[in-house]
Design brief:
By secondary structure, the protein is an alpha/beta fold. Helices cover 48% and strands 15% of the residues. It has one domain (6-161): Rossmann fold (3-Layer(aba) Sandwich). β4, α4 (97-104) and β5 form a beta-alpha-beta unit. The structure holds 5-O-phosphono-beta-D-ribofuranose. 5-O-phosphono-beta-D-ribofuranose (RP5) binds at residues 10-12, 14-15, 39, 66-68, 89, 91. GO terms for molecular function: 5-(carboxyamino)imidazole ribonucleotide mutase activity; lyase activity.
Amino acid sequence: MSAPVVGLIMGSDSDWKVMAAAGELLDEFDVPYEVGVYSAHRTPQRMLDYAGAAAGRGLRVIIAGAGGAAHLPGMVASATVLPVVGVPVPLATLDGLDSLLSIVQMPAGIPVATVSIGGARNAGLLAVRILASGADPRADRLRTSLAGFAAGLEQMVLTKHD
Ligand code: RP5
């Protein structure tokens, strides 16, 4: 088992029904990841400890999903230099617009790469693309896999419409 390079975290275990899609995508690309629940509001110190230690533990990207007053991605981004991909998790009320606005409206200096509401699969893909931008053998392999993935998407459309 390789050491995880992606931290897939969320504010509550209730977010997993959305966030699982990011894990499935990472599995498709054979990217090792770890999963955890870190709440910005209920376990703030645990969240900060995780974010502060992430880079030193070998993580290279953090995917953070949260719903409602979704402060987890932004707070994690403030406590690490790693790229953070934020996933707005839709809750029963407000259809995830609250989550989206909470995550996307970051102050200058602390970026979070926000995907669409419920867009955990794209968050996984963005993490793969970030890892693929390196100069190491894993990055080479991932660039090849991403090219194959894109070709598969194209083929899917052509098969339907030709
Ligand atoms: C947020 O509150 C979590 O990310 C979750 O989306 C939402 C509701 O959490 P639970 O009450 O289901 O634990 O912090």
